[in-house]
Amino acid sequence: MKSFNKLVEKLREIIAEENIELEAEMKNYTSFRVGGPADVLVTPTSKKEVSDIIKLCKNEKIPFYIIGNGSNIIVKDGGIRGLVIKLSKLKKITIEEDKLIGEAGATLSSASIAAREACLTGLEFACGIPGSIGGALAMNAGAYDGEMSFIVDSAVVLDINGNLLNLNKEQLELEYRNSIVLKKGYIALEVTFALKHGDCEKIRNRMNELTKRRTEKQPLEYPSAGSTFKRPEGHYASKLIQDSELKGVSVGGAEVSVKHSGFIINKDNATAQDILDLIGLVQKTVKTKFDVDLYPEVRIIGEDKK
C-alpha cells in the first residue's frame, strides 16, 4: 500500500476521510458476497467528486473501477488493484411532473417505489431489481416485458477523462444488455425517465404481482447476481441449463439453483473461483448438448488469488 500513500493524500483533498477505505473486502460490497480486497475504495457524495477522482486517477495513472450496488459483478478472489469508486451515496431521486430523475447510485427498485408513490407508470417492472440506476442503464436492464430503453429519456455521464456529457435516448444506444456506457467506458451519473401518469391502485397491484412472482420463482434467499447468463438468440438460458440436467449441480459452495436454473447462487460460503468454475461447467455442458454458447450477464473484475 505504500505506493498508494500519495494517492490517498490527494483523495483526502477531494472527499471526506470517512468515505475512503483501504484494503476494502469486496465480498462486503457485492450481492454474490465474494471477492478479495480492493487497494482503495471510495464512496463519493457528488458528481463533482466523481469527476475529480477520475481526473486524479488519470493523472496518477491509477486503474479504477466503477460499481453501483454491486449486484451484477463478480470480484475475483485476488481482489482489485487500484481504486474502486462506489456510487451508492449518489442516490437522490426527484420527480418533475411525469419525469423521474435518479442519481446513478439509487437502486432501481427505490426508483420504482418513488414512481408508484407519485402515481407514475412505466417502472413497475423494476420493483424487484436490486441493481443501481447507473448499472441498469449501462446494461439496459429489464424484466417482465419491461426494460430501461422503454422509459429512459436522457442521462448525464462522465467520459473516460472525467468530462460531463448529456446524452439523449438515441445517443445512449440502448440495446439488449448493452449501451454506449459499456461500449465507451462511460460512467452514468444521473438518469431521467419519461413516465406517464397512471392509476395508483393499478400500479401498486402490478408491483405486488411481480414481487410475488419473483419471490415464488427466484432463489432470493441466497446471495447471487440475479440471472447469470444473457439470453441466447432463439433460446432461454434457464431452459437450456435445466434441459442439460444441471439444476442443483454445484462446485464448492456455488450451485445452479434448484428453484431457478438461470441463477447461480452462493449456497455455502462459495469463493469467486467456485462461481467462475461453475459458470464454465454450465457453458461447456450446454455447448456440448445443444451447440449454444452462453455468455455471462454478470461483469467479472479483479485478479485471481495467488
UniProtKB/TrEMBL annotation:
Record key words, sorted: Cell cycle, Cell division, Cell shape, Cell wall biogenesis/degradation, Coiled coil, Cytoplasm, FAD, Flavoprotein, NADP, Oxidoreductase, Peptidoglycan synthesis
Involved pathway(s): Cell wall biogenesis; peptidoglycan biosynthesis
Entry's localization field: Cytoplasm
Enzyme class, first EC level, given as a word: oxidoreductase
PROSITE patterns in UniProt: FAD_PCMH
Catalytic activity: UDP-N-acetyl-alpha-D-muramate + NADP(+) = UDP-N-acetyl-3-O-(1-carboxyvinyl)-alpha-D-glucosamine + NADPH + H(+)
Record-level GO BP terms: cell division; cell wall organization; peptidoglycan biosynthetic process; regulation of cell shape
Residues covered by the FAD-binding PCMH-type domain: 33-198
Molecular function via GO: FAD binding; UDP-N-acetylmuramate dehydrogenase activity
Pfam families registered for this protein in UniProt: FAD_binding_4 (PF01565), MurB_C (PF02873)
Active-site residues from the entry: 177, 227 (proton donor), 297
Segments forming a coiled coil: 1-28
Keyword Ribosomal protein recorded: no
Keyword Repeat: no
Superkingdom per UniProt: Bacteria
Cofactor(s) in the UniProt record: FAD
GO cellular component, one term: cytosol
EC number in record: 1.3.1.98
Family designation: Belongs to the MurB family.
Function, in words: Cell wall formation.
Name of the protein this chain belongs to: UDP-N-acetylenolpyruvoylglucosamine reductase
